[in-house]
Design goal:
The chain is α/β, with parallel strands linked by helices. The protein has one domain: Alpha-Beta Barrel (TIM Barrel), CATH 3.20.20. The protein contains 11 helices and 12 strands. The protein has an 8-stranded parallel β-barrel, surrounded by 7 helices. Helix 9 links the parallel strand 11 and strand 12. Helix 1 packs parallel to helix 3 and helix 9 packs parallel to helix 11. It is globular and about 40 Å long. It starts with a strand and ends with a helix.
Amino acid sequence: MELFPAIDLYGGKVVRLTRGDYQQMTVYRDDPTAQALDFQAAGARWLHMVDLEGARDGSTPNFSVVQDVCKQTALRVEIGGGIRSLDTIARYVDAGVARVILGTKAVIDPDFLGQAAERFGSAVAVGVDIKEGAIAIHGWEEKARETVDEFLTRATGLGIKTVICTDVSKDGMLGGSNVELYRDLNRRYPLDFIASGGVTALAELRQLKEMGLYGAILGKALYTGALDLKQALKEVE
C-alpha cells in the first residue's frame, strides 16, 4: 500500500483545515518545499498536495509552489484543487506533476472528465469528497446532484483508475478514518482507492492494507505527531 503524506497550500504556506472549514485553518509551516524534503527524507515516495485557494476559487494561485516541489524533490507529486481546464492539467503535467486530481469540474461536467481521461490517461485521478452522504464540491461548500454511486460508475466507464476518497466529517479531526466506507467502495468498484480524512493510527493503516486498498493520505496526524511517517511507511511495506 502506498502512503501519501499531504501538504495543503494556502497563501504559499503549509496549512490544515478542520472538516474543510476555511475559518478553522492552522498554519504548520511557511516553506512547503522544505516540508516535502522532510517527507522524502523519511522515506516517502509520493506527495499529496491540495491548493485550497484553487479548490474554493477555481484558480491556481499556488502553482509556482507545486512546480518548485517537483523540481527540488524526487517525490512523485499528485495535486488537486481548482483544476478545471485541460490547459491547467497540461501545465501541471509539464511542471513535473505525476498525477492531477480533478474534483468539482469532473463531477459537474461529464464531457470534461471524458476529454481529460482520453488525453492524459493515468495522469488523471478524481477526488470524491463525501459530506453527509453526498459528493461535496466547490471547496466542500456545496453538494453535487450526482450520487457517489452514479459518479463512480461513470468514472469507471471512462477509464479512470485512481480515486481519492475523503470523508469530510473525518478530515482534520484526528478521530479515525471511515474504514467501512473504504471497505465497501473497494469491494464494489475496480478502482484504486486512496483513503483520505482522519487516518490517525497504525492499526487503521493495517486495516486498510489488509482490505487491499491502494493507498492512504496522511495529513494532520503527521503534523501533530500522532503518526510518525517512518513508522507508518514501515507498517505498510
